[in-house]
Amino acid sequence: MDEREKLRKFRELDDAFADALLALEKETSQSANEKQASDDALRESDFEQRLADLMQDYQQPAADVSELLTTMIALDKLT
Length: 79
Fold this sequence. Notes:
The protein is 86% helix and 0% strand. It has helices at residues 3-57, 62-74. 0% of the residues are buried.
């Protein structure tokens, strides 16, 4: 093989490697996003369960708790 042929082969290999890296990064990013969404849903479910338990323990109706949370959000006390 002459030098030009070697250089062409090297460029093809380099391009294929770069494409493989991009595909791997895209898969990793998608997996991370899916895991984050799953974690968020689990946290939300856990929060809702703990809130329901507290409402039952302190005998507070949902309307009162909703009003309290709405007020806290409006006052930037809760995000």
